[in-house]
Design a protein that fits this description.
alpha+beta, 43 strands, five-stranded mixed beta sheet, 676 residues, 21% helix
Amino acid sequence: MMSSSIGSRAQKMSLPMSTQKGLLEVPSPTEKDWSTDGEEDYVFKDPDWELDSLPQPYRMINKLLNLLIDRSWEVIEERNAVREAELSRIQPTIYPPVLESKLNKMAHCMAICQDYVFIGGAKGFSIYNLYNAKRIYVWEKLKVDVTSIWATEMGSEILVAPVDEMGIVRLFYFHKDDLFLIRAINEVDDTSKQTTCVKMEISQGGDFAAFLLQGAGDIWLDVYKLPKECWLREVEHPQLALNPKKKGRQPQLNIPDPMTSGDIKFSLPVHIMKIKPPKPVTGTTFKSPLEVFAKIADCYGLGSGQNHFIKDSQWEQQAAIFNATYKKYLDGEWEEEPLSSATFHFLLPSCITAMPTEGKSPAGVACALGIHWTGCHNFFLYSLNRTLKDKVDPEGVWPCAAPIAVSQLSYSGSYLVLACEDGVLTLWDLAEGFPVGVVALPEGCFCQSIHFLKYFLVYKGQNVYPVGLVRSQMTCVVLCTDASLHLVTAKGTQGPAISVLVERPVKHLDEAICTVAPVPALPGMVLTFSRNGSVQLLDVAKPQVVCAFALPGVHRPALPWEPLFVVSLHHPYFLLRGDPPGEKEFADNASDIQTSVFYFHFDAYPLLTNISRDCTMSSADLMDGVAVPQVLPLEKRCEDFLQKRFQKLGNKVNEQEHWTRLHRYSLLLQRESARK
């Protein structure tokens, strides 16, 4: 009976919109002959009611099937749209590498200086020729791997600074095909007192070095002055004879073994400064403003938010008001705050960094250190003309409206960008001595990294570098945390401008840009590395993709979201590490994985040959008024710069004299009040 009732119900459900009781007859063609007796037997029903009349669980099954079909159809339509967009989009030309250097062990870091490539890996680092990838030197005397490496040009010599997994940094001197170990900066015999190098920076020319160290729950910045003239003299005229027991070569590799500090006695770097994070503002016991005024020794940093003197009672009142206002946010468990970190730069002499009490610094030699700490609103300036016995106080402080998140100094040392956590960028022209402007990123965008581009011009549709002219504007690209890429330009007489180069990906998240690198050999070009492993060359002036680079065969970038690469500053090369698939799964030790470093030479590719070779333009072509009519002659710009410099020096001297008189007057008032 159950089956018969279901069958009758199925028959009823199969009827059309109108259902008639009784036998069905074919009506006559003429409407007049139609019978009117059975009109009351017709039942009009909604077609959707047919599905609702299904019993459970068939109604639910029917709805799920319909939902599955609808969603499947949406996926099919989306894939078809993507396929059509890919076919309609012009694919860039893909170039393979020109050379492959196979390594026996995994490479963790790379650096290029002059004509050499420095690759750090298991138990040390190796030196290769940039043009033929031939290994020249190998230094593997560590028990741990080298995680980062720094190479700085010091005239015809090179200063090499590798950092191992224990955070120990060592200084090497590469001179005329010989490698010398100078010393380890933070290595100690007692492992319980070992400090770790978190970050390091070496000034251009190798005159100074700074190391951010942490240990025993504390963090600080050590600054050293490097005696590079003494090193050159000691290498050319060694004070100690070479060790006769030391072998000069490794027979199995036929590669010279680097000399140690025991072979030649090197002068040690001079420790000139130790900088700690700024302390929070606390209360003071001074009773009157006169005592506070007499305590301040000079006027530098006045009005910058430093050297506050607040009474204990006032500070307690402010703390009580804050706790009462934000009580609901303060209640609960708090995680331990991590140690503060720092970003620092060596600044060249300019009207901003030069101190009135100091003599003139040599051209091209850093004279000040700029630093900002995590969560701090201020950018501090410290003079490098000091000794370790001097009091470590900043000679200048630049306050910002929000904590500084990212800072970047141009390679020439002329421009500085400070990016705050609220997305506001402050552009400084250090050579001229004034801020170029302030620009805000689009809403919801926050700065992740800043990359300066060498000043270029667009002449007859091609990007070129001007020769023999002072740059009149700054250009940089800003990569945001949402993977969008922006171009920021600024001129001395005009406000900064910002434009979008690459939008934030919405549907295809694997195309998100994770890293950007400028290409100095190609004007106005940057390399973009995406999460899907693709590497593209982007022209920021157009903006458009010029070409792409791909690894051969089954090789892929080591970590697509954090690729290991290096771009040469003076040669048309960039290097990229590639790993074959499946190596990590079968290797017992990650350091023993065989990897390859691929060399890409821009001059070897047809689309880039003319751009790389014809990338400069003479001053005569620029001054004819066709390319850049706003560019001033060099003599005029130098004259204006000197006039501004003399005016600012005179103002600083007057300020110091006025401050000295005020300081003496405050002491006099304090003595008179004490007598009463």
